[in-house]
Amino acid sequence: MENDDEYLINEYLGGNQNSFKLLVEKYTPSIYNFSLRFVGEGYVNDIVQDVFIKIWKNLKKFNKTKASFKTWIFTITRNTITDYLRKKKMIPFSSLDEDGESFENDIPSDIILPDKALIELEDKELLNNVLDKLPANYKEVLILYYQEDMTFNEIGQLLGKPLNTVKSYHHRALIKLQEMLK
C-alpha cells in the first residue's frame, strides 16, 4: 500500500498528473471521515479541499524516511482542522495538544486494551454523540486507531506524542466511553 503511494508520488513528480488524482481518490474518504468528526458537515468539504491543496503544494517536500505518506497526510489534516477550529474560535488554542495528566510511564508498552465499547456500538448516531463528548485528544486517537486502522506508533508520529502517551489516551478514552454507556 505504501509502495503504491510512493510509486504514485514519484509518477506525479515525474509529470504524470493522473497520479495525483489517484492519490486524491484514494485518501479523500479517510480525510473526509476524519475531518467530519471534528468540524461537521457544514465545513468538512472546505477542510478536505484545503488539505489536498496543501498536499499538492508540499508533495516535493514529502520525506518517506520521516513518516509514511498516510501519517504525513493525516498530520496535514490534523493541522488544518486545528487551524480552522482556532480561526473559528471553536476550541482553545491548546485543546488538541494538551496532555493534561500523563500516565505514560505507568502503562506497559505491550498492553493493547480491549475495544468492546466501540465494537458494541453499532448505532452510528449514538457513536457520534458519544465520541463528541470525549476530549479532542482521546477522540482523535480512537478515530485514527479504529476508523483509519493506524497503529499506536503511527498515531504517535502523527500527534508528536510518545507511544505510551498514545496508549494512555486510548486507555482513558475507552474508560470514558464505558462510563458514558452505562
Overall description:
The relative contact order is 0.11. The longest helix has 23 residues, at 17-39. The radius of gyration is 17 Å and the shape is globular. By secondary structure, the protein is mainly α. Helix 2 packs antiparallel against helix 3 (41-58), helix 2 (17-39) crosses helix 7 and helix 8 (152-159) crosses helix 9 (163-181). The protein has 9 helices and no strands. It folds into 2 domains: 2-87, RNA polymerase sigma factor, region 2, helix turn helix motif (Rna Polymerase Sigma Factor, Chain: A); 104-181, Arc Repressor Mutant, subunit A (Orthogonal Bundle).
Describe what is shown at a glance.
The chain is mainly alpha-helical and 182 residues long. The protein has helices spanning 2-13, 17-39, 41-58, 69-87, 116-120, 124-132, 136-147, 152-159, 163-181.
